[in-house]
Amino acid sequence: MAPAIGKSPPARAIIEPAHIVEAIQLQQAADAAKDQPPQNGEPWFAVREGTLPIIVTAPHATSPFREGQYRFSDGGGTAALAAMLHQLAGATAIYTTRASPADPNYDDDNAFKRKLAVLIADKRPILVLDLHGSHPYRPYDVDFGTLNGASLLGKPELQQRLELSLRQQGVLNVLDNYFAASKHQTIAKFASRRGVPAIQLEISSTWLTPSDSNLAAHRFAQLLQALVRYAREIEE
Q: Entry's SUPFAM superfamilies (predicted)?
């Protein structure tokens, strides 16, 4: 008999193909609208309130407006990831849906940040998880931005457990604070100043484009499963 690899059997899969089909639709909708400013007072971000004490943000799912011009978006995959974390784990999600009149990860004077402040006050979350897409040429799968540890507010286990969950689902190349979220008025800085630990996740865009191919969809499913499992277990 072959020796046991681990002390317990592998966990059952959470993510189903139908979830990825829905995520692809969300990604494509955000990508299609990324350069379209809101019209006639329509909202430029969506809010999905959940019961889990985690808030997930995707402030660059569409093109943000910074210093007088629109900047490239991180891709609709970040919006899809946030929305699916709401659906599958019960997290509260807030993510952009149109070209933004401001940059919520650069300055504080905008409707996105004001809504986030309300959500923090109402939900009293134990964590804010801020999702970003990173250039595919960068050498990591995920980079943690925590103001060099300061935004964890003395709770390093929040990052440690997240790293473990990512690695268990095959997201292996995890680095720390290349993008520390310390410049400008970032969401990690905003949340931690309000007493909530925060982690900025810079995720390689190679994990965030499920519509590209079967392999890309599979990678997105791995990433989503890691984050859903982490979110469901974080209160334990």
A: Zn-dependent exopeptidases
